[in-house]
Amino acid sequence: MQKVYNKILSVTGNVITVKAADVAYEELAEITTFRGKSLAQVIKLENDIVSLQVFAGSQGISTNDEVRFLGNPMRVTFSDNMLGRIFNGSGIPRDKGPALTENMIEIAGPSVNPAKRIIPKNMIRTNIPMIDVFNSLVVSQKLPIFSVSGEPYNELLARIALQAEVDMIVLGGIGLKYDQYMYFKNTLEEGGALSRSVFFVHTASDPIVEGLMVPDLCLAVAEKFALKGKNVLVLLTDMTNFADALKEIAITMEQVPSNRGYPGDLYSQLAARYEKAVDFEGAGSVTVLAVTTMPGDDVTHPVPDNTGYITEGQFYLRNGRIEPFGSLSRLKQQVNDKTREDHRAIMDGLIQLYAQYIETEEKRAMGFRMSDWDGKLLKYGNLFESNMMDLSVNIALEDALDRGWKILAECFTPEETRMKTDLINKFWPKEAA
Amino acid sequence: MKQSKGTIVGINGNMISVAFEGNIIQNEVGYAISGEDRLKSEVIKIQGNIAYMQVFEITKGLKVGDEVEFTGEMLSVQLGPGILGMVYDGLQNPLNELAKMHGFFLKRGVILDALDFEKEWEFTPTAKTGDTVTGGSVLGHVKEGIFEHKIFVPFDIRGNYSLKSIVKKDKYKVVETLATIENEKGIKHDLMMYFEWPVKIPITNYRDKLVPREPLTTQTRIIDTFFPVAKGGTYCIPGPFGAGKTVLQQVTSRFAEADIVIIAACGERAGEVVETLREFPEITDPRTGKPLMERTIIICNTSSMPVAAREASVYTAATLGEYYRQMGLNVLLLADSTSRWAQAMRELSGRLEEIPGEEAFPAYLGSRIAQFYERAGLVELNDGSRGSLTIGGTVSPAGGNFEEPVTQSTLKVVGAFHGLSRDRSNARRYPAIHPLESWSKYKSFIPQNMIDEARKILFKGNEVHQMMLVVGEEGTSVEDYIIYLKSEFLDNVYLQQNSFDAVDGATSPERQNLVFQKVLNVLKEEFKLKEKDEARSFFNKLRQLFIDWNYFDMKDDKFNEQEALINQLIEEYSGDAKGL
Ligand SMILES: Nc1ncnc2c1ncn2[C@@H]1O[C@H](COP(=O)(O)OP(=O)(O)O)[C@@H](O)[C@H]1O
Ligand SMILES: [Mg+2]
Q1: B340-368 mean pLDDT
Q2: How far apart are CA B404 and CA B414, in angstroms?
Q3: What global pTM score does this model have?
Q4: Which SS3 state, helix, strand or coil, does residue A411 take?
Q5: Which of B106, B278, B532 sits opposite A110 (nearest CB)?
Q6: For A283-294, how does the pLDDT look when each residue is reduced to its tens digit (9 = 90+)?
Q7: Which ligand has its closest atom nearest to the C-alpha of B238?
Q8: Which residues line ligand 1 (CB under 6 A)?
Q9: Phi first, then psi: what are they for B461, rounded to 5°?
């Protein structure tokens, strides 16, 4: 039994209110305007006044438009038929394929009991040394790429997606530029991965509110596939657009902003999504790689800041490279002791020296005389940047570790490197250049 | 007491407004009925006949008109044997039991008893019929793991009672009556092994609160030597994300010399708790020979779990801590992160439309933080023995900037400040506690004058370093340069510590005394070093020897051999040629 109302009391921003009875919190409604139908979700109940956020935006809504309550919260279809399909932010096909209405599942379901979680243990190899050596990616990790706009973050996302040995890819686009959407589609197609992918794409030209559902849609579908044993990689780009949509609704609802206009629950909202990353014991897993663009290259901006507190590290993309400073994989220690015995030492050692190089480079730029040691550091820094950091480097972890020793030996004596003696004895290149 | 009823009239996120009849109390628990589900909620504001309640569950599907049943009880926890080793959510629901019943997900509206009501405990009475008792008096004890778990007269019993009867030594369940007490007015209570206590009320059944003095060893060198924590004291660890707050608390929970450690995972990642949860049962506590889990309680209300329960979780943790303190134990409560708790308050305050303070935090933020840390303390119990509750909380300041309300309010009340620095963590100088900015009001087991000497080198070394950035190495004298090298040496071999190494990760007080003495000797020595290159290469060698030394077990022969190598090198270069 569906309830229909024809009197819209107020329209503010993308939120409307109607007088209605027996409506459930977060229930969906369908609004019919001259532009067509749009979904809306209940976000507040006060006596018989119901506030709804309208996914298609409020432009053109007439006070006598029809509001039909659907009696259920947001749901999405779930079946193998979704593979290779592309949906919009309301879960409706965007490609030319048939509508899918079978087996509807609720989105934004309960969280996983922490007691049922397991310690992540499987590394995802990307053949990018800045990831594999220094910040290993791990199955079930949630990790964003922090980037200013203009950096090749979507390219990096696609490259990792194709390189990673996962069963399925779920791509969520939030405010995605049309050409980037096409880029993902074409790249995954060429890489032969489209038939094991599902897209939920909200583009930059779609109504802002519609982007709000994308992460939940992706994660609900990914979670179900994972429970069926699939290892799923979820790509979300760009979560800053998601946060901006949250901000817009919060301001409309006259919530007191906590920081630069963002609502006080931004952290909880982001966490509810990112925490869906999981490794189900005896079944599959969900790994989440996201893009968080940093307005003004400011990592203390509320979106990257809150994200960094939630995710298990971040890859910092700058000048087309993954920066060693600021980048972090919090799960790396779960896996990098099982790769090769020198992995951790190389990881720490190379970075500490690179930090010293940066300092020396600053001194050099200021015109100071360079000591012998400075000279060594400068040589080292240049080698490190060209042979490790450059994103074009595409080599296996073990080769990258060997390359690390080689760079050290080209620049330093063993004790200058602070490496433990037993490792030096074993790995230091014998015929140092 | 008659229980009141109400009807939902508004829903906004996790807050509902409820029109009620009869009487209700502030912080009373009620259940919002949504079909099959009973959603636990707490009264947080009363205005006329409207109660504002925070719901400890997702409110999806609730409707205006749904019924609310009040319980007449404040939000409480169950206190009794069987808490150690447990993993609870913020409201003391046992998560392992929930998992057994409902699988992977946290099903809404499920509430289980925190204690096992079927398990039998061997109770040894110590009180006798006719004894005069009151709240907090000891009736007897049971063995809980390695501890003698005292069974108390419930803490809310006021005035004197006479013990009318008490059972003999035998096995009992926590719900069986063990004793009966009666006062002059003829009021009687049947007492069991467990009772309930409201989490937001501190337990104060002790004689006196004392000033914390004795160090609580964490086995992290920079803390124990430079910025110590005291038993019964408080401290905070603010730091930007990724600076190492959680890792630092994890190693502390493992190595700290406390009887009991309570980990309150408050609004942070679930994955981090899992490590503890899975590893602790496997790790043997060297001090007791038992699995570490047996001295640990985990309160786990991670970031995607309901926000209102997150708000409650730190109080749940503090209450359990106070309870074990009543047994004369030293309890350490580690809360990660208190900022998430503060944010939960902020979310709620916003929904209540209270006048916001700085960064939209409620105006009472500071007093709530102070009240929370006040629950720590070293106390003299009524029998003259002592117990302590130490609280260490991480703070996650927005943008890593300490000039924000939660950090500032916390710094006003705590006894030690371990400020983590982005620069240090970027340079992988772990633990990234800033050696120049951090402070502690407590005393270390290492003499203060020695610490002062070492800190002086750190300050001077930093000055030289700053100067070198301006004038370059060539503009720096050899003497200054050596001071810089000495401060780097102290940083590298002593302040920095590899938390993930079995030996280096935990340094006993005995070893800290020994190593610190040797490091200090190096700092004070005037070496025969004429040039900067020579100095640098000497300190490089010395550092290498020390770092290797840090990785040798003290009982290992290599430890002594390495020490000899170090002495030899120092002697070779020492100014007066007679060595150290
Ligand atoms: N003491 C340490 N030794 C080595 N690595 C550390 C240490 N502390 C932190 N790290 C590294 O930094 C990462 C982030 O630390 P974490 O404690 O999770 O930060 P925070 O809680 O401050 O966000 C860890 O995953 C680890 O890689
Ligand atoms: Mg943390």
Answers
A1: 93
A2: 16
A3: 0.94
A4: helix
A5: B106
A6: 999 999 999 999
A7: 1
A8: A 328, 330, 333; B 239, 241-247, 430-431, 499-500
A9: -60, -40
